[in-house]
Amino acid sequence: MVSYGAGALIVLALSIGLALIIYGSGILEFNIFNIPSWIFGPLGAYTLIYGIASRRSSLYYSIWGTLMLAVFLVSTLYTVFNPVIIVGVAIIVIAILGLIARGRSEK
User: Fold this and answer.
1) What is the pLDDT of residues 54-99, one digit of tens each?
2) Which of 2, 17, 27, 69 gives a 20 to 30 Å CA spacing to 46?
3) How far apart are CA 8 and CA 31, in angstroms?
4) 12 and 42 in contact (C-beta within 8 Å)?
5) What is the pLDDT of residue 102?
6) For residue 64, which phi and psi values (nearest 5 degrees)?
7) Whether 83 contacts 90, CB under 8 Å
8) Sign of CA dihedral 25, 27, 30, 33
């Protein structure tokens, strides 16, 4: 399995490269508030998948992946949804992950 740092660097480079191509070609209009979504969306998805696939520290990576995906959703959907709702859902998901981890450790 690839180390987390190496995989995260690859995902981040691909994401930034794709964003530069899309904004440079005029496919999307540049919006400064969408920049975090280009960084935290793919990185959060990678971190969450890494947390699920990893045998050690899976809760740690799952929580950070969830937080990064929440930042992605807030920066992408801030004109459609109230960001407080997305943060609330992220807190609930993190609490559920904690309960699942606690249940696994008691077995």
Assistant:
1) 877 888 898 899 999 999 999 999 889 898 998 899 899 888 888 8
2) 27
3) 24
4) yes
5) 72
6) -65, -35
7) no
8) negative
Which residue, 46, 37, 38, is CA-closest to 3?
46
Pair of tokens at residue 93: 């998901």
pLDDT for res 71:
92
Structure tokens at 35: 């920049």
At 107 the pLDDT is 60
State the pLDDT at residue 17. Answer: 97
The two three-digit tokens of residue 56, written as one number: 């050690």
- Kindly report the three-state secondary structure assignment for every residue of the chain: CCCHHHHHHHHHHHHHHHHHHHHHHCCCCCCHHHHHHHHHHHHHHHHHHHHHHCCCCHHHHHHHHHHHHHHHHHHHHCCCCCHHHHHHHHHHHHHHHHHHHHHHHHC
Within 8 A by CB and 6+ apart from 80, the residues are none
**73 CB-contact burial (10 Å; exposed 0-12 / middle 13-18 / buried 19+):** buried
